[in-house]
Amino acid sequence: DELIVVDSASADRAAVAAVPLPANGRMIRCSLPGVSRARNAGWRAAANSIVLFTDDDVVVAEGWRDALAAAVAAHSEAGFVTGRVMPSPGQVPSRDVAIKRDEHAEVYDATSIGNLGHSANLGMRRAVLEQVGGFDESLGVGGRFKSSPETDLFDRCFAAGLLGRYEPEALAWHDQWRGPRRLLALEARYGYGNGARLAKLV
Question: What is the C-alpha separation between 102 and 115, in angstroms, rounded?
Fold first, then answer.
């Protein structure tokens, strides 16, 4: 196993560089911001055939790695596997951000609707990422179109004839840190990014 932390053009480079050291991880620096750019830099630097993604405002459960990696390894037909994401303990958010609470495993295809999961808790084969071109760097925070990088990635997996899966045993907690003003701005970004994603589908 390996741990890769990607610094997405942070102002305090030294602080980010210290994050992976206790776990014998390594840091990769992106001089330009963008969540999709950072994720692409991370998986391209990885040496293993299975890549797991999480975010800096997420805490994963002790068994997260094993559950998510096992689900990816067990289902060769799956282009992606997403895991359960809950609010941090004690939080009762007024609006869920990147949360998926379902307690039962699911299989997705191009006809699936609703919340398929999030890249804050995502496992994929490196070969699939190479096949579909990774994350679209114009989408997501720091990109031109501000959101929807994972749904676009899922779209391209489906277009390649792959399925998706949801594995609730791969559990993580996402800090709901945004207040009302930030949530309003987030909603605007979601609309903008989803519009770009729909334009790509057309």
Answer: 10
